[in-house]
Design goal:
alpha+beta, Nucleoside Triphosphate Pyrophosphohydrolase, six-stranded mixed beta sheet, two-stranded antiparallel sheet
Length: about 160
């Protein structure tokens, strides 16, 4: 039996506020993450479907599904890949964008038994919130393996400026 390689693709939205770089990251929904913060946020991402051959298209689709935001940008900056602790390879791109201050994400939902062993099925949002954070704040909140994406974006923007 061949083991399926686990791949995800996602987008890291960024903006400049008062001259400071900020990145948009997402907090997972559902009961397991309700009271978890530092180290649990992520870039909006997901797995390719059977028809997708371009991972950037996967990243755009997943970003829209998880946030409700259409990723409309002239440039998508390749941020390369990282390997998450669970063995999944994540491909990422960055783009410049913004959201209204009162924005609420509209993500896909998933069903699970809750409470455990209750026999009751409940629906939960994949993402319960998205927020812009400064680079320092985001590095405290995002999964540790995804910090590289923020570092690579910073490096790209610094090189582009010089």
């Amino acid at each position: 039996m061949t083991e399926r390689i686990k791949i995800s693709a996602g987008l890291l939205m960024y903006r400049f506020r008062n001259g400071e770089l900020e990145v948009l990251i997402a907090h997972p929904g559902g009961p397991f993450f309700r009271n978890k913060d530092a180290g649990h946020w992520s870039i909006p991402k997901g797995e390719p479907d059977d028809t997708e051959t371009e991972l950037l298209n996967t990243a755009k689709r997943e970003f829209k599904e998880e946030t409700g935001i259409e990723p409309d940008a002239k440039e998508f900056i390749p941020l390369g890949t990282i390997l998450q602790k669970g063995g999944k390879t994540v491909h990422a791109w960055a783009f410049e964008g913004n959201i209204p201050s009162d924005f609420k994400p509209t993500s896909n939902t998933f069903e699970m038994e809750w409470p455990p062993n209750s026999g009751k099925k409940m629906m939960f949002n994949e993402i319960d919130k998205v927020e812009f954070f400064t680079v320092e704040q985001a590095k405290l909140k995002i999964k540790s393996t995804q910090i590289d994406f923020i570092d690579r974006l910073q490096q790209y923007l610094t090189e582009k400026k010089n």
